């Protein structure tokens, strides 16, 4: 029996294949955060965003649209059916919808900028592919579009090889995971060293400036903690900047889900799960929640109840407080 994927997943997969971004963001939009930094395009260490933080507000807006539209309705079909016409001009209706509704674009773009500044503060030298950077394709693999993934990864590798890099530092654990475990199975001689932002900061944490802050609690990303075995490093980094870390009951490899993985298909359930995780984290005694994954950041924000006093930040945003102006 033929199985048909939900329409929204087909939209996302087609965008990745055609535009190199789940929401058809242009390269100039993905790379806008780096304007004025004059980062070289070639070097041994490649700074890789994959456009993941940059597209979060667009995903949130698309999810809000989907929440109010029946995916089997004529209205939804008409909105998505218009893609054939708009694709000729390089636009997609879900992107335009998202662009109208999107909030916090500046915040999510700034996460990439702040990550670059933190690494510069720690005296790392790195390059960036700029407008040529492509999404890693992780969603193609996770959603089961394996044949499309095998073709798509070749395009990504071409861009990476142009940089001359030997090491790729990923801001998102999703990108790090797919580069480390999936690409070597699909690409011959994919022998790049794969690192995360957390890895690099942890190695030079003694150079970090002290940060004045009340206690924090860490939401361990499942990809970072379980697949990449990175969790103590987060705590070491925060200890090095003089911040007390409270622990949630479910932490490290046993972290609870943020609700992010089902956000596109079941947005309302995702908010329920996200809200439950926020409450678990607050039970630690801290209302300042830190995570190191773009999707966890977005999902936890979505789980906040109206009027909730909890503060949710990415580790990158938090560490940027110690960067010299």
Describe the structure.
- This protein is 49% helix and 8% strand.
- It is α/β, with parallel strands linked by helices and 325 residues long.
- The protein has 2 domains: 7-200, no CATH class; 208-322, Rossmann fold.
- The chain has a 4-stranded parallel β-sheet.
- The longest helix is centred in the middle third of the chain and has 17 residues, at 105-121.
- The protein is globular, with a radius of gyration of 19 Å.
- It starts with 6 loop residues before the first helix and ends in a 6-residue tail after the last helix.
The helicity comes to 40-55%
Question: Can you tell me the residue ranges where pLDDT is under 50 for at least 5 consecutive residues?
Answer: none
Task: Report the span from N to C terminus.
Answer: 60 Å
Main β-sheet, spatial strand arrangement: 5-4-6-7
Beta-strand content: 5-15%
Helix/strand-derived category reads alpha/beta
What is Rg? 19 Å
Main beta sheet = 4 strands, parallel
Helix count? 16
